[in-house]
Design goal:
The structure holds two protein chains of two kinds. Chain A is α+β, with helices and mostly antiparallel strands. The two termini of chain A are about 40 Å apart. Chain B is an all-alpha fold. Classes of the chains: A alpha+beta, B mainly alpha. The interface between A and B is medium-sized, with 36 and 33 residues.
């Protein structure tokens, strides 16, 4: 297939895809995440129970049950998914009451029925059925006979462990203050969980506090009606469990003697019926036995219904009406203190069944619709401005090429948006950040190629040849860089929390799509235009035909830049030591409230309203046209309980009028998970990047890359410490993205080094690096600028979340560009120059140049100093490697070939040529050159060919360019 | 957080090793590893074999790493000299 035909088919294919994409965009709705449309987001961590360990099956079963519960809430398009091995994310769009949602969705709902009198334990850890001071008598369960939580825990802790097989827990831990006689935290089945709870609630452990363990077989239950101050100690030997009941429903107590109060009625399973009949018969019989005349009610015995450690009800059994126990055929009911809503809630919980595992709510957030709309608008504007800035940059620097790239960017945007709708991807705020960043990636690919094309033009090649060569030579660097960014995005996606997952997904998908549009499409367009008047002159490509390379002794100056980095790091280390990092609530736990206030307010006024309720608070004004009243305030405080949050909202409403409140509460477990996954992600990224670089280049190239990346990460962290910027999960995502971007620049440099090594057989490594840097500096700077432009748009126009990304990315991209040139490259120089082959070559250059190594290779008599590498043969027919149109030779190229014919120097002659030659006597015929020295005198170019050169892997020697003569 | 400060300080000190003729064991990369390792080990030892957290970190935590980094570099250099690494003047 000819180039022209191939280009035609590519353009036709892209046009077809564009039409399809347009149809998808029109037909399919965009799925917005909670942060863009408002709703409640809950993150749970699964904990084992006596009944089940945290296995994949248990988590899946839990998710199924949660989904059924969510369905009972009537929430449209809920999302419940597992994150990692033991976390569950629940997204409930358009729900505003997070507490209610959490109570309904994540409640374990372990329901048990106990024979009350035989299980309530007295001070001696023994049941005392006839002692009303222990059982509460006729006020059983409602607080009579109960003690304080501290006393109950102390009493329970004395009871020995049992193992009857009926126990519902494996034992429980409490943190108590023996001085104030208070229970500070617990119960938790694991001591570590107790510590985490204490840390999360900012509870300091000291000499007055102690951890108390209640053994398996004993439980402490809260008295009926959530009587927080009163607790009972019970033997943990339930007669029935939640699995023994069926068809629970909310009802009204409308039977004989009923009071019309809401109740929960249910039926029993066959096994449940039998057990129920038996247990109620025993309870009735015990009542009968204790009745010695008088009021029979004083002898009624009870059973207790305990839900998740709280006594729901302790009804009595009338032994006169039910001497043989209660027939379970008609089911039973739970009554007492229900409203219709709470009765429905319990019925639903019982209907969907108990969760097999315990769920700890580690993060919850509620976002108002207006806040979501504001975020969406800010993201969209930042994206459009970013796209416009990049387009302007491409147009100014690359003229016609830039115009084509802008077209490709437009096509890329359409493709990506269609893909987002087609999959469908839930578009979140971090996802928008990822999308905007990929604009930079797409532009970078074009810049790499365009700079290469310009370089070829400057070398005097005809424009069609330059375009073809530009794509061919630039492709490897683009593939390497995109593969690395994709791998980092993949790692981030696998390890990150749900919010950052959206960012990673968009970055990964965008990288793939941008590769197709930035390379395939622009190549087809340029290939079609190559011989047209549109790109007939170098000026139209933003270049001139003469060489304009900026030559500077980068390696010579690297010492000073190295020192500058050292000083910056020193300052950063001292800043970290002095200030530490300002860890946001994602890591340190806490509550963040965004209050949209109708009345005009100042930060100080908001602080005055908040501090009396929540203590120390950080107030930050957030402006936006979509906010009610045009303004909002972000309030960051220590973790507040739901009641305190309600008080906080009340205080703000009292002062400023009814506002709209969004909040986010992060527990310590979530922060720990985020920190751990961030560390794993960084290490995994570094390993994968190193492996890839070692594979594509050689392993010695990977080490400087790693050092440069560590340099970038630490400087970014140092800048955060120095400026006191808040570190959030977005910062972590940005740090990982920095790894990919920093590598982009380094790969561009190393790719050129790899190309230049065999071309410069007489040069020292530092000279090769200088030459390589001088060739790619503009390219490296241009890619950095094109990446920075959309990031700056995010920084200026994005909301707080997007700005979190943008700050870290701005620092990272700048240090990344810097470290590619002044850290990675000098480190590689030092390391490679110490190798024997380069050491000996350096010695020869020093000897030939009066004891110094010139910054750039110089040859005697102005002769050529480098070899044109043999073009690797590529399989024909690949879209990415068009036919090489070398048939078109420009005048300059022709002149160069003539020069080559008279000035070729074979690689083996290095030693001869590097030495100063005496001026030839014009009157004397120049003698024949002496025989070539042994090839062992210097490394041949083929000795230095890197791994990816097919000839090297086959062990074959590269043919010398026979057409060239020898001086 | 203490670990970050130590690594940062070790890396900072290593940057100045470029002024010394390279006779380091393992070259500049060996110097890098030794500087970081020295900074972390000495920092860890000086802090009583604990890693200070974000709230307990002080400027002294960062400064503690300096002697460790210098010792690490000195050890790398001494091993290089002992192995007969020729000086590399760049």
């Amino acid at each position: 297939m000819t180039d022209r035909r191939r280009n035609f088919f590519v353009l036709l294919f892209v046009a077809g895809l564009l039409v399809l994409s347009g149809l998808v965009i029109v037909a399919k709705p965009t799925v917005l995440g909670l942060d863009l449309k408002g709703g409640v987001s809950l993150v749970y961590q699964a904990k084992p129970t006596k009944q089940s360990a945290v296995t994949g099956e248990a988590v899946d079963l839990t998710i199924d049950i949660m989904r059924q519960r969510v369905d009972t809430l009537g929430v449209a398009e809920p999302e419940i998914q597992r994150t990692g091995t033991d976390q569950i994310d629940v997204s409930l769009p358009n729900v505003t009451n997070a507490e209610q949602a959490a109570a309904q969705v994540g409640k374990t709902a372990q329901l048990y029925f106990y024979d009350w009198e035989t299980n309530v334990l007295g001070p001696n850890c023994k049941p005392q059925p006839t002692d009303a001071a222990v059982t509460g008598g006729q006020a059983a369960g409602r607080g009579a006979g109960a003690v304080s939580q501290y006393d109950a825990v102390a009493r329970a802790a004395k009871c020995p462990a049992t193992n009857t097989g009926k126990e519902t827990t494996t034992g429980q831990y409490y943190l108590v203050n023996d001085k104030t006689k208070m229970v500070l935290a617990g119960p938790q089945e694991a001591k570590a969980d107790l510590e985490a709870e204490a840390t999360g609630n900012k509870i300091t452990q000291n000499a007055d506090t102690s951890v108390v363990r209640v053994n398996q077989g004993t439980i402490v239950v809260q008295a009926e009606g959530r009587n927080a101050g009163r607790y009972y100690v019970m033997r943990d030997a339930p007669a029935l469990g939640g699995i023994d009941i069926t068809d629970p429903r909310q009802s009204l107590d409308s039977g004989a003697g009923g009071n019309g109060q809401p109740t929960v009625t249910f039926d029993f399973t066959d096994k449940g019926k039998a057990v129920w009949q038996k247990i109620t018969r025993e309870i009735a019989q015990r009542g009968q036995d204790s009745f010695f005349g008088g009021d029979a009610r004083s002898s009624f015995q009870h059973f207790a219904i305990v839900l998740d450690g709280e006594l729901i009800s302790a009804p009595f059994i009338d032994f006169q009406q039910n001497p043989d126990g209660i027939d379970a055929t008609n089911g039973s009911e739970i009554s007492g203190g229900f409203t219709i809503a709470t009765a429905q809630e319990l019925a639903n919980l019982l209907k969907t069944g108990a969760l097999p595992i315990k769920l700890d709510l580690i993060s919850s957030s509620s976002i108002s619709a207006s806040l979501g709309k504001q975020a969406l608008n800010q993201g969209a504007i930042a994206g459009l401005i970013g796209l416009a800035l990049v387009s302007l940059f491409l147009l100014v620097v690359y003229r016609v090429l830039g115009l084509i790239a802008i077209g490709a960017l437009g096509v890329y945007a359409v493709f990506l948006f269609a893909l987002v709708k087609l999959i469908p991807v839930t578009l979140t705020l971090p996802g928008i950040a990822g999308l905007i960043l990929t604009i930079g990636v797409a532009a970078d690919a074009n810049i790499v190629i365009f700079e290469r094309v310009k370089e070829e033009v400057r070398l005097g090649r005809a424009i069609p040849v330059a375009i073809s060569q530009g794509y061919r030579k630039g492709l490897t660097a683009i593939i390497d860089a995109n593969v690395v960014i994709f791998m980092v995005a993949f790692i981030l996606f696998m390890l990150a929390t749900s919010g950052v997952k959206g960012f990673a997904f968009m970055l990964g998908v965008g990288t793939i799509v941008s590769f197709l549009t930035a390379v395939l499409l622009t190549q087809a367009v340029l290939g079609t235009l190559a011989r047209s008047r549109t790109v007939s002159s170098p000026a139209m490509l933003g270049t001139h035909s003469k060489r304009q390379r900026f030559r500077w002794d980068y390696m010579g100056a690297s010492k000073w830049f190295f020192s500058a980095s050292g000083v910056i790091l020193l300052v950063c280390a001292l800043a970290v030591g002095t200030n530490g990092l300002n860890l946001g609530i994602d890591f340190a736990s806490g509550t963040r409230i965004v209050a949209e206030l109708p009345a005009s307010a100042t930060e100080q006024a908001v602080r005055d309203a908040v501090v009396p309720v929540a203590g120390n608070a950080k107030i930050q004004r957030v402006s936006g046209a979509d906010f009610e009243g045009g303004q909002a305030f972000q309030v960051s405080v220590d973790t507040v309980a739901p009641g305190e949050r309600a008080a906080l909202e009340k205080a703000l409403t009292a002062k400023f009028g009814q506002g709209t409140y969004s909040f986010q509460t992060i527990g310590p477990t979530f922060g720990k998970t985020v920190a751990e996954s961030a560390i794993i992600a960084v290490i995994a990224s570094l390993i994968v990047i190193s492996a890839y670089i070692a594979l594509r280049f050689e392993w010695r190239y990977a080490v400087p890359v790693l050092i440069a990346l560590i340099h970038d990460l630490l400087i970014t962290a140092g800048v955060y410490a120095l400026l006191g910027l808040e570190v959030t999960t977005s910062t972590v995502a940005a740090l990982l993205t920095i790894l990919g971007y920093s590598l982009y620049d380094t790969i561009i440099v190393f790719d050129r080094v790899r190309e230049n090594v065999p071309r410069m057989p007489r040069a020292t490594f530092s000279q090769i690096l200088n030459r390589s840097l001088s060739e790619v500096l503009m390219r490296s700077l241009a890619t950095s600028v094109s990446t920075l432009l959309p990031i700056l748009a995010l920084l200026v126009l994005g909301g707080p979340t997007l700005q979190d990304f943008a700050i870290a990315l701005t620092v990272g991209v700048i240090t990344g560009a810097y470290s590619s040139i002044f850290i990675a490259t000098p480190v590689m120089m030092h390391w490679k120059e110490a190798e024997p082959v380069w050491r000996s070559r350096r010695a020869r250059v020093v000897e030939a140049n009066n004891g110094v190594v010139p910054a750039y290779v110089t040859a005697a008599g102005g002769a050529a100093t480098e070899l044109e590498p043999e073009q690797p043969k590529r399989p024909r027919g690949r879209l990415t490697s068009p036919e090489n149109p070398e048939r078109a030779v420009s005048g300059k190229e022709f002149d160069e070939m003539v020069r080559d014919l008279h000035g070729d120097q074979a690689p083996a002659a290095t030693e001869q040529l590097d030495r100063p030659r005496p001026e030839p006597d014009p009157g004397v015929k120049e003698p024949e050159p002496p025989p070539l020295p042994s090839s062992g005198a210097d490394a041949l170019p083929e000795d230095l060919v890197l791994k990816d050169d097919p000839s090297a892997s086959k062990g074959s020697r590269r043919k010398r360019n026979r057409k060239h003569g020898r001086r | 957080m203490g670990l970050i400060a130590w690594v940062m300080m070790g890396l900072a000190i290593w940057h100045f090793a470029i002024f010394i003729p390279d006779r380091f064991w393992g070259g500049i990369v060996g110097a890098f590893l030794c500087a970081i390792f020295g900074a972390v080990v000495v920092g860890f030892a000086t802090s009583g074999f604990t890693v200070p957290g974000n709230n307990s970190i002080t400027i002294a935590t960062a400064l503690e790493a300096i002697p460790g980094a210098l010792i690490g570099l000195a050890v790398a250099y001494a091993i290089g000299v002992r192995r007969g690494n020729p000086a590399l003047h760049l």
